[in-house]
Amino acid sequence: MTRGALSFDELFDPTFLLAVERLRLIARRVPRAGRPAEQRSEDRGAGIEFKDYRPYVAGDDLRGVDWNIYRRLGRVFLRQFEELEDLPVYLLPDISASAYLEDPPRARAGLRTSLALAAIALNQHDSVGLFPFADDLRVALRPRAGKGRWIRFAHALSDLPPGGATNFEVSLRRLGGQRLRSGLVVVVSDFFDPAGVAAMAEAMKRLRHRLLLVQLVRASDASPALEGDVHLIDCETGVTEDVSVTRAVRERYRDAYGRFTTELGDFARSRGAGLLRLDTDGDELAQLATLFESGALAV
Question: Which of 78, 118, 177, 203 could disulfide-link 169, Cβ–Cβ 3.0 to 4.6 Å?
């Protein structure tokens, strides 16, 4: 039976959030026109880290001229520095009805992971927004920065009720209509959509953001413990099906799941997206610490 929203105590404990502070999210480049923060920007200006030279153009600030080069070569060059700015992070946890079905529900791992990623980004002065989705996407928290906002994220996550059926096409179209500054979209889901991986991938291709996919998995996904005649009920649509689970049926299922996993991985590689597979029966932070090599994940 599908359960209700997860309580605050199920998502938040002091030890969990203290451990999060060991991890950092490092962007290869962040979009221009952001706030001063800790990510390397595409902007060039009066930052703190030297990047390159360029020829002087009339009207440039003379304070940027490298006079040592002028004395040696008789040519005027400006020093350029790398600006450090914020990375907008848009968290999309899957709150479809199926995420709340199991015991413990995989929504618990998904929301705790979302909270950990929010805390990581907020601790390094990035702006973070919360956009839970199921059959549609909603705006739970607009993107804002501030180290103290993680507690607000914890409350917002614990207040999320289970949604309906998973629909990536509708949800991602709604996200695209938000006119958000280009940043990093983090989708935390099992990526089971009735329309299939191809429809989900097509919807993601239309996003102008970078992507990090956090796939919530369980051992039973690849090999469910079913045997004999069973009556299956789709917890999101209510559709029922009587199935005789034979060895041949199990093999066809394993093949289908293998294709699903391969297609999701192929899409991530083709898009240059990060893909983290997180076992919902394991400790979220222990897995994140392993996945964030050397304490940092580059996206």
Answer: 203
